[in-house]
Design a protein that fits this description.
Blueprint lengths: L12 E4 L7 H4 L13 E4 L5 H7 L9 E2 L6 E10 L6 E14 L10 E9 L12 E8 L5 E6 L5 E7 L10 E10 L7 E18 L2 E18 L6 E14 L5 E12 L2 E21 L2 E4 L15 H7 L13 E9 L6 E19 L2 E14 L10 E9 L5 E8 L7 E10 L10 E9 L8 E18 L4 E17 L15 E11 L2 E9 L4 E9 L1
Antiparallel strand pairs: 1-2, 3-16, 4-5, 4-15, 5-6, 6-7, 7-8, 8-9, 9-10, 10-11, 11-12, 12-13, 13-14, 14-15, 15-16, 17-18, 17-28, 18-19, 19-20, 20-21, 21-22, 22-23, 23-24, 24-25, 25-26, 26-27, 27-28
Length: 547
């Protein structure tokens, strides 16, 4: 019986003038005696360095602007690019929202460095959410000197960290500076590789046309060529060659108003033909929130359709059952069916899952206090003989905070009281500054297995939950489709040994679990769910009744 064990990146002049008189009454007096003009004041600014240029930039235009209380700083960009091999450009919007500052990175690197974290999200509202869209990654910058430190995709499909660098931040006008970085990434996760062919040139001040009118910027050109090395082999070999060039038009605080870029990846055996990348890349600022003031398009809500909802809570409040109040002892019964394989080798399992949302409140469990418990009981039966007694049963008890953060769970089998599996989330961290419609809510969990062994001891789980708007779901009790609030969720768990090495299975492959879920809710809870997991090709939950 294979039951899943985890249920769950040189001068300028300013002319300043002032007119005497500060009222209409003063302006009506004899202009020869009362209306005086102050002498013009010339302010000279040194544009010979990038820092001098940035200091000289005028503030951002604030009209029209909108005050937004409680919002973090964020930027929204319109991006277009021509992917290699395509005939038409890809166009999308990219939101960059400040998460805040932290000391060190989640992977333990740069432990003493103050890091500014930004979440970067791209979503296509015309497509159903999946493992690739909306995308979510963190970009890391040294909060003290603005050096770029790296990026990390939510599911670690790509990532990099510059553990050391000579990247210059205060460049001299028209002087090209070569610098190096030492980097770890998915190809060389432990051994830093030095890359020396990186160049930066400060080109001076330039006025460009933006979505908000003309704006002075400071221009920096970058170019690089990186040989990414696979160091997991006995003899390290080059895995990918990256060639990149860009021109950034910077505003104050190094923020980007416009970026023009070309990027290509090559197989080291053929440096003439790019395997991936793009040209004609153009990234333009079209909206931002700064100091709780919104200018232009909203970085958080630009995808919300007219009349749509920003959050799951708003959606649920719009449904016909918004006055539903669950009984303290309510139970929800689901029919669960899952399968894997094809034709004669197909395996199908059916079960009745009974969820009790509110079992106990304010309980203590392990080192956690004031938790609420939820219970799920599963009874598996032979789908060819559904009237026969269940051949296998389990019960999982979940422990969550008042805010709904899961702190762990434990399971028993077939009516016993011995813990069969479970996990204790020793650390649970939100990775999102905010979340909403097509804006992922990401959480990072570090857990300890309750039945840990030296070979399989602990795990790191990433969960991304996306509110996807309003849809319809089949309500078995009513026998019809009903309006429902949609959610896409994916979680992945990577397992480690007691010594911190990657845990492997019997075939030597890393132990990884995952679940892709499309869930539909009303105010009574989950209506139906469609899933793909590491163990099952398909799994469906259908709500049958509420007791």
């Amino acid at each position: 019986m294979n039951i899943s064990k985890v249920a769950l990146a040189v001068s300028t002049v300013f002319l300043l003038s002032a007119c005497g008189g500060d009222s209409q009454e003063a302006s009506d007096k004899d202009t020869d005696t009362d209306n005086t003009t102050q002498p013009e004041t010339e302010v000279t600014v040194d544009l010979s360095t990038l820092s001098g240029c940035l200091d000289s930039l005028a503030g951002f235009p604030v009209n029209p602007a909108k005050g937004i209380s409680g919002r973090v700083d964020a930027r929204l960009y319109q991006v277009s690019r021509l992917n290699h091999g395509d005939d038409e450009k890809t166009v999308y919007k990219q939101s960059e929202i400040d998460v805040g500052e932290r000391v060190g990175l989640p992977n333990g690197l740069l432990a003493d460095t103050n890091v500014k974290v930004t979440q970067i999200t791209i979503a296509n509202p015309d497509l159903e959410p999946d493992a690739w869209s909306p995308s979510f990654e963190h970009s890391y910058v040294n909060a003290d000197n603005q050096q770029y430190l790296g990026q990390h995709d939510v599911f670690s499909r790509w990532w990099s960290t510059n553990v050391d660098s000579t990247q210059p931040m205060n460049l001299n006008l028209d002087e090209t500076t070569q610098y190096w970085i030492e980097r770890v990434d998915q190809f060389s996760p432990e051994q830093p590789v030095r890359h020396e062919n990186l160049y930066a040139t400060y080109k001076g001040k330039e006025t460009i046309e933006t979505a908000f009118g003309e704006k002075e910027t400071c221009v920096v050109e970058y170019s690089s060529e990186l040989a990414l090395m696979n160091t997991s082999l006995d003899e390290p070999v080059e895995a990918v060659r990256i060639v990149e060039s860009s021109t950034d038009y910077l505003d104050q605080d190094y923020s980007i108003l416009l970026s023009v870029r070309e990027y290509s990846e090559y197989d080291p055996a053929d440096l003439e033909t790019a395997t991936w990348g793009y040209s004609d890349y153009r990234k333009e600022l079209i909206g931002r929130v700064k100091d709780e003031v919104l200018i232009g398009a909203d970085p958080e809500q630009h995808l919300v359709p007219e009349g749509g909802f920003t959050t799951m809570e708003q959606c649920l409040a719009s449904l016909p059952d918004n006055d539903y109040i669950a009984a303290p002892d309510a139970q929800i019964e689901y029919l669960m069916t899952r399968s894997k394989g094809e034709a004669e080798s197909m395996i199908v399992q059916d079960a009745t899952y009974t969820l009790t949302p509110r079992v106990e409140e304010g309980v203590s469990w392990r080192d956690h206090e004031n938790l609420n418990t939820t219970r799920l009981h599963g009874a598996f039966f032979d789908y060819q003989n559904p009237t026969a007694p269940p051949f296998y049963e389990f019960t999982e008890t979940y422990y969550s905070t008042e805010e709904g953060v899961l702190m762990g769970f434990e399971a028993t089998e077939n009516g016993g009281n011995v813990t069969a599996w479970g996990a204790d989330n020793v650390l649970s961290e939100s990775q999102s500054a905010t979340s909403g419609y097509l804006l992922p809510d990401v959480r990072l969990n570090h857990g300890k297995l309750l039945n840990a062994t030296a070979e399989l001891d602990n795990f790191v789980q990433v969960m991304s939950t996306v509110f996807a708007g309003v849809g319809t779901a089949w309500d078995s009790e009513l026998g019809e489709f009903v309006p429902a609030c949609k959610e896409y969720r994916r979680w992945e768990a990577n397992y480690y040994t007691e010594d911190g090495a990657v845990a492997v299975d019997g075939e030597g492959n890393p132990v990884v679990e995952f679940s892709d879920e499309r869930n539909f809710y009303d105010n009574r809870g989950l209506i139906e769910s469609f899933r793909t997991t590491h163990n099952w090709d398909s799994e469906g939950w259908l709500r049958m009744m509420i007791n």
